[in-house]
Records
---
Amino acid sequence: MRAVYVVGRRLADMETTEAFEGLSCRDCGEFYDPETGTHRCGECEGILDPAYEYDEIDVDRETVAARPFDSMWRYAELLPFRREGAVTMDEGATPTIDCPSLAGEVGVGEFLIKDEGRNPTGTFKDRGASMAVTAAVQHGATDVALPSAGNAGQAAAAYAGRAGLASHVYLPARAGFTTKAMVNVHGGDLTVSGGRIGDAAAAYGDAMDEHEDWYSLSSLVTPYRHEGKKTMLYELVEQREWDVPDAIVYPTGGGVGLAGMYKAALELRELGLIDELPSFYAAQATGCAPIVEAFEAGREVHEPVEHPDTICGGIEIPDPGGSQWILEALRETDGGAVATDDEEILDAAIAVAQSEGLEMAPTCAAAASGAWALADAGEFDDDETVVVVNTGAGNKEADVLRSHLMSQGV
């Protein structure tokens, strides 16, 4: 699949925030004006990352706390686009739930779940979709396109519909019925290709070659999906009255959300709003764990998994494009990586639902089972605060969870 980037095209009057300077390539350092740089670096095809002049950001804890806790756009000073120009459905502002029963079982001081299942389409993907579709509108796009394991495609179709854009979504056959159905319900043009994410990505690449005017929303091709997802960390820290948790365990496929949260933590420290960074942990399934394998081997980048095999389709990403960024986040925060088996992951989803009432999709429950495994390995002290990010609602794949229960004779 070819890299997608657009440079040299200037559009008038983008509604950007005061401190947003442009896009910086994480690989070669090339810098782009936000009006002319839209996707990958034109010099090296590296990942572009929104950059800010932090000295121009005048925000403190009291200023933020005085605002309604109503959406991720309440952190506008730290985002590229102004709230009044955003394509939004009040995504974000999700609760962080105290889970005392799980804290006792895991053996830590606090066990919290950041519940992203409360977003408009039921997953954290809405944060990235809101930001990336806003960018597409600002750049004058009429059509947006992306490959997805499922949830990102549903979110993109929803936000594109709200913005009046046509959406073209490429999903693998294994994507859940709910996400496939809702792409169509939101008016998206759905193409189902092969059985896995690589098949969908190949079909998307072919389509992009034929439609040069389509605007890519593909993960880490657009610079803006991780920028929306970083707001999870802002909220989490603020909800804890600016007390940074000791550990954040994140279900990791492409790892865009983890990279975004790591960036957000660095930003809050740069602005003097926090003093310490949380330790980030990537949780994967043993059937597809390229980040875990790279971390344990001491490598800076992953090696692709040749034959991925896990029931957790959302994190079955055998060749994550942002692995270097993810591994940096794990190592620079004294975190780590953990993989657990599918059965352990499904057991964890059911345990969370039955002990705390919270619904986690199988993919998301990799973070819960990973937290258990890390605790068993002695990674956490008994007075520490551990946060698990539930990236999507359990009813997305309720049939998978119920089937697991039935297999146990329940």
---
Amino acid sequence: MASEKTRKLLVDVARGIFAKAGLEGTTMNDIAVASGKGRRTLYTYFKNIREIYYAVIEEELDRMSERMREVAAQNIDPEDKLLKLIYTHLSLVRETVNRNGNLRAEFFRDIWLVEKVRKNFDQAEREMVARILMEGVRSGQFDVMDIRLCVDIIHYCVKGLEVPYIFGRLGEGGAAYSRPVVQRILHRALARIDSERLK
């Protein structure tokens, strides 16, 4: 328990320093001094600065996953839930990147590093989307031929929207403007077509 607290303290201190100085401008000694724990304690938990950086990103992603699980657990219409999950994802990514100051630069410059660290987050999100699609299929609202393929398409579409959303380039009116468009795309792609209307 004490070791968990110490590790969390080190990660929190590192996050604050990374936010001001960035990854390249931060040393193990900076974190040791700012935490008041000393270099020996720091090296007990982390081998190097990159390992602490991974831990900071992982903690942010865990926080995001928890918020998204709350959305996925809501008892609402599957289409509305999927839309809410997409916009929760985008808002949380923007909030996390903006809150971390200079860490933003590393986030965009070293995107492959971030990809490696976010594997668990991506997998958890895929599972949430799959469950929502299955809910929609079971309720007769969705007509999905291949759930895994549909999950892949939604996942990569949402990831592709992250950077434009962070920088406010997703339509001139922001989320309020883009949301109805995304909802319409989801509805057209997933909704069961009433055969009577086709006659």
---
Amino acid sequence: MHSMGIIRQSIQLSWENIKSNKMRTFLTTLGIIIGVTAVISLITIVNGVIATVINEFASLGAGTISVSITGTPLKSGLTESDLESLEALDNVAGVSPTISSTGMAARNQKLLDSVSIQGKNEVYYAHNSLVTVGRGISEWDVENSAYVCVIDQDIADKLFAGENPVGQTLTVSGTTYTVIGLEGQNDDLMASMSGFGSNYDGTITIPYTTARKVTGNSSISSLEIYVADTDFTDQLMDEVESVLYLAFNQNENSYYVFAMDSLLDTMNQMMGTMTYMLAGIASIALLVGGIGIMNMMLVSVSERKQEIGLRKAMGAAPGRIQLQFLLESVVLSLLGGIIGVILGMLLSLIAARLLDTDFVFSASAVALGVGFSTAVGIIFGWAPARKASRLSPIDALRSE
């Protein structure tokens, strides 16, 4: 109890001294405030950006294995038999082949010179909520090679401006299709990366069996395999590669298998490293702030020599003198740390709004900011506090 009373009294004395020098206190803690604000805001902003990017990528392909076929001189792509072998694997929720081509689209004397034509099946639409009006491609459409299509917003704006396109027809490379569905604006991350938005007038999706018929291309060069249980994605990838290895006569250079989950793991590791690097750079400001606190406390010791000498003459132990000055340094640093945490969070919230990213509250960032500021107060306050405790009472009382 006695030691607690000493600590409480020392804190009170430290606080009174801090309040009596408001301008110097502000200038001293400014370095800590800037340092903690930088650490908190950088970590929180980066975490928000990471969360947004990860969520975007996850929505585009988490739980999906993508297969790209380069083929061999004897076999350019996958056959229906190969698809059945892949569908028969354990943990496969569905297989969606893709046949891609380009062509022209026309309606009512409006012509689009370059559209992306994608051949898909019902599995693709079962695993991707893309259609905003109408419906996606069905199993019946695939089995009967129906002349139906799903168009994106770009095609709708250019050929069906002001109209509901569902139920109407358009001509694609000389063949008439009935529009059965409309996809939302194609502005996601993957579309931007693939360059569809800039290279094509839009995208038209038809049953892949119809695409094989109109293009004369019976082989499949790419597909997506949907994973039933993502805990076993790596195992399924190995099984998929085994099927492809046999399908292409043991030529492992004729195909490429890729899982978005692997990319997400890599991105998480890279982003985590980047966060720590940024936090380390921002912590330099805390070092500068700590030097400022040490300078201020050394000046304070010089100015208060008579007070120190009087207290020692009245029986104050060196340890108590040292504790008071050390606590004064810690209070200064903590004050700057708390203000820095508040400013850092506010800055992060504003940045999240401006960047249109998630605001991710990070308890670890707050703990890091407060912990750093406390450590700075102890480390850089130790030398001045030690100097104060070692002053001779006679020499201190003689000083002017």
---
Amino acid sequence: MGVLDALGTDRVFYYFEEITKIPHGSGNEKALGEYILRFAKEKGLYARTDEAGNVVVKKPASTGYEQAPAVIIQGHLDMVCEKLGAIRHDFTKDPISLVIDGDFIRAEGTTLGADDGIAVAYALALLDLDTLEHPALEIVLTTAEETGMDGAHALDVNDLEGQYFINMDSEEEGKFLISCCGGRRMHISLPAKHRPKPENETPYLLQITGLLGGHSGSDIHLGRANANKLMGRLLYALTEAHIPYCLASVNGGTMDNAICRETSAVLTLDAKIAVQAENIIKDMERLLKDEYRHTDVDMILSLEKHSDAVDMVLTEETKKNTISILMLIPFGVESMSLDIPDLVESSSNIGVVRTDADCIHFDNAVRSSVASRKEALCQKISVIASLCGATVEGLNDYPGWINREDAKLTPVLQAAYAEITGKASSLTAIHAGVECGLFAEKMPWLDMVSMGPDMYDVHTPQERLSISSTIRVWEFLKEALRRMK
């Protein structure tokens, strides 16, 4: 028996568990796509894939719905792969270890992949359910959403006929998303110049761990710490205290759209002054824990001898430029919307720092619902990079989206939601990117909404999915399709 078998619900949880058995991190979605194509073939449904790995499956309308406008159900195949430092897990081959914890499904020390595995599970359950009353369905599952929406960019929509579009990539039940921000990934490349390690210096590993992290869009306003930014402050503090040290490398984070939880730096310094360095680090830990006492109470800063040999270190110029970028690059909320109360308008997140043989890389996620402010924020990052001797490249640009003023889909959804739950729903906008903007550009006639069940702490190992909310959204989704005759 599977972990989720007892939950039932028209095989939604069955398919969700099946999905968690198949590795599907960004760039590794092929096996999951093949699973869906096999499923469609067994059901006798039209299905196709493309060079980007996107999957499209079509289900004809049920009896009596042949003249109703087709509905596109859309989600993405990939997941963010994050884990706790102590967990041994290979996201390229290991299944997610599921746990039922009260009303929640979570994973054992890793991201769960409910973002957006639950959309895939809903889609498969819709295709599988023979008693469903529905218009023609077009299931569209894209790749590489978490790393720049590459699949949606590449998708050929010429064979799609849908008039209504339901994106299943939102995380708050009963809040129908009708607007999102646009974004761009800013990749900074700093040339890494090296020199031999001083003979009298010993390698040390400086680490920042225990941060909560989170989604760089929907959680950016919560004031959580970013380990990459804190590492810049920590290295700067050692420099300002006149601690003579060399920097060999800095590495933190795995995704630009996740607030970085852990960062490490390899230093070399004279063992005789290691105690002084440790004292400064302890002082900084106390200071930072006070600053982030409401968000990151489990923060740990540590310095210990490094087990690996170090032969080369960065030059002082490269070290200085690395610290300068970490100190200057913007992180957090840049501006709030003047149109929608309490909505973040623009933000920036330094999600990844990575050192390789000849370069130090910085990946920053820029978001804004105002195109000109997104551009201004990207220009600021470009200026910082230039002043520090680095180059910058803008990647994975995606547009924002505002739904049609003559929308007919939202009233249907709101009525169905009230019928099933007895609760009122709301229309909202979020400071995060969903693929609706790209589909709106390709298919401007679409009447679009993004929705989903309650999920918490996505993009972190604390990610969890509400069981009761998943069930309610499923029942509501079936009722909404029934009303679209």
